[in-house]
Each structure stands twice: as structure tokens, then as C-alpha cells.
Amino acid sequence: MKKLKFQGRFRMKITVIYDNEANAGLKSGWGFSCLIETEEKILFDTADDGEKLIYNLRQLNIQPESIRAVVISHNHWDHTGGLNEFLKLNNNAKVFNPKSFSKPTEISTCVHSTGALGTFIKEQSLIVNTKEGNVVITGCAHPGLENIIDRSRELGEIYCVVGGFHGFSKLEELDGIEIIAPCHCTQYKQEIKEKYPAKFREIKAGSIIKI
Ligand SMILES: [Zn+2]
Ligand SMILES: [Zn+2]
Predict the structure, then answer these.
(1) How many Å lie between the centroid of ligand 1 and the Cα of residue 80?
(2) How remote is the CA of residue 8 from the centroid of ligand 2, in Å?
(3) Is this model's pTM higher than 0.90 or not?
(4) Series of mean pLDDT values for 10-residue runs along the chain (211 residues)
């Protein structure tokens, strides 16, 4: 597979909109959503509940109408719960469901989907091309974070990985990655923090990662 052609050109900002934990002034619950800003805004997952999702977007000063696309990692309520409410405020946003593709595909110039991975639960993750390397963003990582990492590495070096890691325990797979930011359903967060203290980022709703 060929390397992504835009490697090295982009800056990006990820804002965690919703997570199991939240900074002051934001709502939390079992679910995940984040906003990816490159040359345009992409919402990745929509939390468990539309009202709480929209509340957090407003608190973070993000206009739902300014978002161009919504990517749903997989069809679980804690990632799809806010989609309908969101689309009521922005029915122009293009929605990318995990069923849409089985191969890596372009969402925008510097954002690609890994394509749906996994046998029982089809799940896609995002790969964002940045000036430092690729950033991988996962929902629940049901197909196994190691498999998502393998697929992503076919497209270039991984600089950062963010999102729900679920039961991922092959921690050595994270070697060489500079920023490791697990949240949501990650079961071995403490172990990851102990193994990679300098690279670990504590994130929750309201956290921002700028690259
Ligand atoms: Zn899930
Ligand atoms: Zn989940």
C-alpha cells in the first residue's frame, strides 16, 4: 500500500468533546466523541446522548453548523447516541458509517479512514496526516488496537494515538509512538501510563491535543 502523499504538511487540533471523564463545566458519561480540526472540522463519534453532546459542543464554543463531516467508528450506542440530534442542527454534514468501506479511504485531504476492521464488530479508525507523522484516532478499538496500528503503519509512521483502547494489552506495540492518549473504554490505562510515562497524555472531555 502506498504511503499517504500529504505526509508532513498539516497541523491539527483534536478536542475531546465527550468521554467517560470530563473537565469542569462539561458533561461526562460512558461514550466518546472528539473534533478533529485540520483544514476543516470533522466530528468523530457522537457520544451516548445527543443532549449532552450538543451541550458540550456549546460549552466548548464549537458551532455544530461549522462541522463538515461526521465519522462513526462503529455501531454502538455510546458512539452513535448523539448522531440524530446533531443532524437536526446540521443536516449538511456528510456521515461516514463504518459499513461504507472495507479499505482505507479518504475523508478529507489529510484525513483517512482505516476502513472497517474486525470480524464481529466492524469498526473504522481515523488516520490524520500531520507535520509530525500520522495520528491514529480510535473509538473503542474492538478489532484490537494492535491490528489498527498494523493497518495504520502500512500508511506511514504513527506519531500519536488517541481514543478508546478497550482491552488492548500488547503494550510493546506502542513503542516508537510519541504521544499516547488513551481514554473512554481503555482497560489498561494505568499500565500504559507506567510503561510510557513521558509519552502518556491524560485526556478527558475538554482536553486538547495540538500537533
Ligand atoms: Zn463499542
Ligand atoms: Zn465505546
Answers:
(1) 10
(2) 31
(3) yes
(4) 52 96 98 95 98 98 97 97 98 90 85 93 95 95 97 94 98 98 98 98 97 94
